[in-house]
Write a structure and sequence with these properties.
With 137 residues, this protein is of the alpha/beta class. 44% of the residues lie in helices and 22% in strands. The radius of gyration is 14 Å and the shape is globular.
């Protein structure tokens, strides 16, 4: 069914990302699907500067963990963004197409009042991506 799963990853690993990663790992194991972790990073106000090496190390550690649990190939990709909040949706959709993903597994928060005005990043991916999107709460 699925050959290549993309998992958008926030390196701060909020619970939504952890749960989506666990679900994607099980799907990859079940489908023998390749996995690509994609992170969109940039300098946010009040946030400590993350070096490329630190980002690569964090992604690599997560990739190793997922690879061991799923028994499948896991790659990583980090996308540098000037404005993560504004560009993340487009960056993730573009990355999914570039890597040839046929499934995106993404975590999201429970609905909030602001979601009636602005869609979540997961909602945006589900609405505008050409491939299947599994939104995990």
């Amino acid at each position: 069914m699925y050959n290549h799963i993309m998992i958008p990853v926030d390196l701060h690993m909020p619970p939504e990302v952890q749960k989506a990663t666990a679900v994607a790992t099980e799907i990859a194991k079940w489908q023998s699907a390749k996995v690509t972790l994609v992170s969109v990073t940039g300098m946010q106000p009040g946030e400590a500067l993350q070096t490329d090496e630190a980002i690569a190390e964090s992604l690599s550690a997560l990739a190793d963990e997922i690879g061991k649990l799923s028994g499948t190939e896991v790659e990583t990709r980090n996308i540098h963004s000037v404005d993560v909040a504004a560009e993340v949706d487009g960056d993730l959709a573009k990355a999914a197409e570039e890597i040839g993903a046929d499934l995106i597994v993404v975590g999201t928060h429970a609905p909030r009042i602001t979601d009636y005005i602005f869609t979540s990043h997961a909602g945006k991916l589900a609405q505008h991506s050409k491939m299947s999107v599994f939104v995990v709460r």
